[in-house]
Design brief:
mainly alpha
Length: 244
């Protein structure tokens, strides 16, 4: 076999790969154009096609797929378009992938997370309001559990510095509801888990304000309910140091 004949399969493979790459990149570019025109359904189709051959792209091109697709779901979430799926979750899943491929998008991702945080906190606050109106301990704690899920999500976004305190408050509230209505050991065990989580989050919140008397008093109250003598001793001392 001559050298020229041997090179033909290689040339064909290179041509095929180049064609795939060019076609995939054209889907990225087309998706961005559709995004700019607010043609979101068309953009999602383009990005889905581009994702099929993303292993051939530069990291920058892959990041664009996730970034713009994340923004589409963010836009839909802000417009309360929850018809087909969970746009908040999809926005986060895509946006969180961007930095894995190109960390130059950090500023844009931070801004997008701030927008997501607003939506997540609105959901969290809605669940709290519903829990106040709900009848029965089970109904109240179920809604508070949903609030906790939202707050944990918000914690991942890293935007709101007060999340740990809010998680402490919500777990304490759920624990109090069960504790006050506890009729058996199972209920008390459930209340204990909420209280333990409340303490964990309150202790994280203390990093920013170690001698906050309100937080120390709350942890002390929870430690007494848990019969945690060691923690009661620790936080009684801390309260004295804080001018308790």
């Amino acid at each position: 076999m001559t050298r020229s004949l041997a090179m033909k399969p290689i040339a064909f493979i290179l041509f095929f790969v180049s064609a795939l790459l060019a076609g995939g990149q054209s889907y990225v570019d087309s998706g961005i154009r559709h995004f700019m025109a607010k043609e979101y359904d068309e953009a999602l189709v383009d990005f889905a096609e581009a994702e099929k051959v993303k292993v051939m792209f530069t990291e920058s091109s892959v990041a664009k797929i996730y970034f713009y697709r994340g923004l589409i779901w963010l836009e839909r979430a802000e417009k309360r378009d929850f018809a087909e799926s969970d746009p908040i979750r999809l926005a986060y899943e895509n946006l969180s992938e961007v930095a894995e491929h190109d960390d130059s998008w950090e500023e844009q991702i931070t801004k997008a997370y701030a927008r997501l945080n607003v939506l997540v906190m609105e959901q969290a606050d809605a669940y709290e309001k519903q829990s106040k109106k709900a009848d029965g301990a089970d109904a109240k704690t179920e809604l508070l559990d949903r609030r906790i899920e939202c707050l944990v999500f918000a914690e991942k976004l890293g935007v709101n510095s007060s999340i740990s305190a809010l998680l402490g408050e919500t777990n304490k509230e759920a624990g109090d509801i069960i504790f006050e209505n506890a009729a058996d050991l199972e209920a008390m065990t459930k209340a204990k888990k909420y209280y333990e989580e409340a303490i964990r989050h309150y202790e994280i919140a203390r990093y920013d304000d170690p001698f906050n008397k309100s937080t120390i008093n709350t942890i002390l109250e929870l430690a007494r309910k848990l019969d945690d003598a060691e923690k009661v001793k620790e936080y009684t001392l801390l309260l004295d140091l804080a001018g308790g």
